[in-house]
Amino acid sequence: MRRVYLDYAATSPVRCEVVKAMQPYFSDIFGNPSSMHAFGRDAKVAIETSRAEVAHLIGAEPGQIIFTSGGTEANNFAIKGVACAKQEKGDHIITASIEHHSVLETCRFLQQQGFKVTYLPVDRYGLVDPSEVKRAITKKTILVSVMHANNEIGTIEPIAEIGKITRQEGICFHTDAVQTFGAIPVNVNELNVDLLSASAHKLYGPKGVGMLYVRKGIRISSFLHGGEQEGRKRAGTENVAGIVGFGKAADLALNELNERIEHARKLRDKLIKGIFYHIEDVGLNGHSGLRLPNNVNVAIAFIEGESVLLNLDLAGIAVSTGSACSSNSLEPSHVLLATGLSPEVCHGTLRFSIGCDTTEDDINYVLEELVKTVKRLREMSPLYKEKHKNGRSVQQ
Amino acid sequence: MDGLYNSKVMEHFRNPRNVGEIENPDGVGHVGNPVCGDIMELYIKVNGNRITDAKFKTFGCGAAIATSSMVTELVRGKTVEEALRISNRAVAEALGGLPPVKMHCSVLAEQALKSAIEDYLKRRIK
Q: Where in the sequence is the domain holding A381, given as residue range(s)?
């Protein structure tokens, strides 16, 4: 059976160049980077090379990169680390309602510890208004955390503008760049950010490794206590092979960035156009322009996302959905709800995310199967029948 | 496919039985699930106290479609009294079980059936 993977926002396959780069670091160059002998020194060199590669991709200094176990840890680290380091200064954190769970749940945890958190609303496109950030700032605000681009709807936030405000106010600014690092240009100086999270497995690197960028002079508490690794901020023997893979993936991304963007954008626009041409009563979620080049998120009226996902899966196609039915909580996506979509519309949302290996043929196949699936499920849907009875079209 | 659902559920999802509407039905059940937003519509035809035909239309997930399909299968040929005794558990069991998070879908199927029968009984009184 033909298989088409369109869930690159969830994770991506490790590129063969990356696997190759990692290979020696399992058995040949296996030393502990903290060891003084040659085995250890070789591993240490590898880590520092990767640190430079990762730093280079975001215009940072190698010394400002702390390797972590992934994006979730980096987000936990940034928020808890700043909260802990600055608790004498204040107890107020500002974030956005559409953040990844690793930010939202960390903020909720801190609320239980007595911190106060403002969850900023977004507009219908998922955009945070920088002036709302400004308005939310109090004398007690110690941290603002707004994601660079949203993982579900692909909206790219006005990070540079928000960063200008936080800089004027002298408040620490963190961005979760898991979806943008290696996908669009990310430069910590242009973005005016103090902390930035990224993960390797979204850009054809391995799972289990990520990083937190910390601008020089930003006070942050250690996340893991123990040895002296990562400038004593994150103890534990380094995931050497993973870090090497991350460095290689970052290096590849840097060299291929423009090509990747162009490739994804072309296929993204083809998919969006195709969906709107072939299927009636669909809506695009997120922003049409300020959007990740690889993200398509649509609401398909009268049918439910999980059943679409299952049907596409049977046809070998991998996508994701914001439907309540697909979550254990049975609640629709908090991101889609925050953009003002009704729970019914959230129910029928699908996310397609494109990658380097996606082809035009893949998009044609997906369109073909999607049209079939939608037709089949709509014929089964009592809502679709209602629509035809009423002879009206539902606008989203 | 391995995963959330067993092969029987997937089979009913792929090839749902009795999809559609019945013209001039003897009872119609229309229920919505307040938990997740799924909607189920069930039509029955009754002949001499026996349910001779059942059809459905469903807006919902894989489990909602499979339980709709199964409940229409279970109810065909049953008397009204027998049909009223079909529980959500029986629907789920007939499908070889559902993931715990999806059990509410079987409740919806039971409610759709009860609502269709109630509608039938009401129409009969009139």
A: 4-9+257-390
